[in-house]
Amino acid sequence: MEKRVEVTIGRQLYTFVGEDEERIKRAAMYVDRKVSEVLTEHRIVNTVNALIMALMEMADEYLELKDRVGEIERSADRLLKKMEEV
Known about the structure:
Blueprint: E1 3-9, E2 12-18, H1 21-41, H2 47-85
Antiparallel strand pairs: 1-2
Helix pairs in contact: 1-2
């Protein structure tokens, strides 16, 4: 059953609807932490700019992890092929 979940991101209250309340809260906490880091580190005052910068940092993290997963999958495939040869 879907629930309404209120979270705060960048000092702004948002309401999300979803089945997994804890997952929504966890994601919101992560985004809020990133926005807070950007506001502090880059001394950005405009909330929209802080959100965009946080999104860019999160996208960079995601792409880096995606690349790592690809490398791990390729390594696993090579190992499986070697095991099959033996």
